[in-house]
Design goal:
about 100 residues; alpha+beta; 2 domains; two-stranded antiparallel sheet; about 60% helix
C-alpha cells in the first residue's frame, strides 16, 4: 500500500543469504539473493502527523455540530411541551 501512496519512500532491497544446501566449494552458488521492499517509515511521520491533525479538526467540528443539534433538540422539546400545555388548557376551557 505505501508503494502506491508514497512510492518515493519504498525501496527495492537485496539481501544475500547463505544456503547450506547449496554449499560446495564454489562460493558463487552458496549465497542466494533475496529481493524485498523496504519502507522509510521515518519519512512518513510528517504525513501521519498531518493526517492526525486533520482528523482532530474534523472531530472537533463534529463535536460542535453535535452540541448544536442537542441544544436545538432541547429547544424543540421545550416548545412541544409548551404547545401541549396550551392545547390542554384550551381543551379544558372548552369542556
Amino acid at each position: 500500500m505505501p508503494q502506491k501512496l508514497f512510492p518515493q519512500y519504498v525501496k527495492q532491497t537485496f539481501h544475500s543469504t547463505f544456503d547450506p544446501e547449496k554449499h560446495d566449494h564454489d562460493l558463487a552458488h552458496t549465497f542466494e539473493e533475496i529481493e524485498y521492499l523496504t519502507v522509510d517509515y521515518t519519512a512518513l511521520i510528517p504525513h501521519m502527523v498531518s493526517a492526525i491533525q486533520e482528523q482532530q479538526s474534523l472531530i472537533k467540528n463534529q463535536e460542535a455540530n453535535l452540541k448544536q443539534l442537542k441544544e436545538n433538540q432541547l429547544k424543540q422539546e421545550i416548545k412541544i411541551k409548551d404547545l401541549e400545555n396550551k392545547l390542554n388548557q384550551i381543551l379544558q376551557a372548552n369542556k
